[in-house]
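Hey,

The postdoc asked me to send both predictions to you directly instead of through the lab channel. I've kept everything plain text so nothing gets mangled by the mail client. Protein one:
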Amino acid sequence: MGLQLKFPNPAARYRASFNCIAGCHGEHELNEVIYQCPRCRDLLEVVHEIEPLRMTPPQEWKDIFDSRYMRTVWPYGSGVWGKKEFVCPNVSDENIVSTCEGGSNLYWAEQLGKQWGLPDLWVKLCGNSHTGSFKDLGMTVLVSMVKQMRSEGKNIPAVACASTGDTSAALAAYCAAAGIPAIVFLPKNKVSSAQLVQPLAHGAITLAIDTDFDGCMAIVREITGRNNIYLANSMNSLRVEGQKTISFEICEQFDWEIPDLVVIPGGNLGNVTALGKGFLMMRDVGLIERLPQILCAQAEHANPLYQSYLRGFESFEPVSARPTLASAIQIGNPVSVKKAIRVLKQFNGAVEQATEEELAEAAAEGDLTGLYNCPHTAVALAALRKWLRQGKVRRDARVVVISTAHGLKFTSFKTRYHSSQLEGVQSLLANPPIEVPAKYDVVRDTLMRALDARMAQFAPHS
């Protein structure tokens, strides 16, 4: 007998539409090429009709999700499309473009938690995905909707994005899988080679522009606005719908228990928005009863949300982002700032920053306990460590850190750390290779000294 998936109440008719975040009246279909409210020019968001979702009891939804999770029945084995009714019911199954994204492991960071005095520390490894970052979760929804629109006869010749690396990789891969041309705008010499090669390999038209991300964003908005090319950046809220499944998966992996604190790095702030939206939607349907606190972590060199937080969110001023090791969040004028602030206010949210040295040391400390995360995840780890030292986190709290990308995309960052070549960073935990001549006695003596030192490092602390 084959696998039997569960499905919700057949009488329910699921629907979602674009609505203005400022509350302007009127809605827009998801297959309409629109990113901003035509009245006030504010961003749009996807709003789901909740009542049809409530027609299925919460426990039945949980059983449905469990029956689909990481199974092989297309397309519901995807961590995103297994929640299709909550994500994008407007796309036909035959137009879904998926790489079975999601389903990333929720890693118990036992050793790091012991060192920090936080035994219930977890890391959601979103970088364990097809292109190596959480951006796959949103891109599957966006590209699927583009395929849907093209099947309906809409003239969309290509999809474009500005990127600091991960978005371009995801867009290029999903467009290649869909047979749709992709265009990416990258800041010249500001992305890792591992990130640059991904859109090149997938055949995307790749433009390296002599500016930063904010400059690329300004250009791509103009290009897409004037040339009927579809915009794939996070100001397009279809991306948020896929990324909000991070929240669903965390709860599912904890058997529907809710963490106390979720720490997430923030750049363009779409993922902060998505994280909150997922928890809010689950609460509205009755899947969960309470919300966690959210801590958004920013690099000190690109910290406009942190500066706004210090002012009680009473005002927001863009900044000129300076170069940071966390290059993907080197963004001084985040598109989704209004959405993110609204989310943080609903979650007793806060914002913390990390210096270049703090993030580099946090990355190295995590790596020594078995993690291998990107520098952006290290910003979140550093912010959490600050909060622990300041007594802002209960030692018995269940804490989840969102890891946004795989460390293999940032080997240059890690190599330079361990060779003590990061400017302004002491590399206190550097572990360079030990060069020795090919002589047994020298190798043995050198090895034993190193082993004694390492055993002392791992000895239990009294």
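Protein two:
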Amino acid sequence: MKASHILVDTLAQAESILAEATALNFGSLAQTHSKCPSKSRGGDLGDFGPGQMVQPFEQATLATAVGAISQPIQTQFGYHLIHRTG
């Protein structure tokens, strides 16, 4: 799998960002809004395999079609928007 993400503290923040997110502007939204260090890379997490991410994140990535952006997903870190890139 390959994905980028945006991590925020609240569901309201995630929903607001999702309303304006597209595959083309996802990286710039990550740089502006994400609290994850990956924001400097536009949210890019690179390639990862089974068991490398927390379970809710992994399941949401698998359920998201390549090129699509997920609905907000909650983990112990906050709320994620996932753009599956591979």
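Summary for protein two, as requested: The mean pLDDT is 98.

Thanks,
C.
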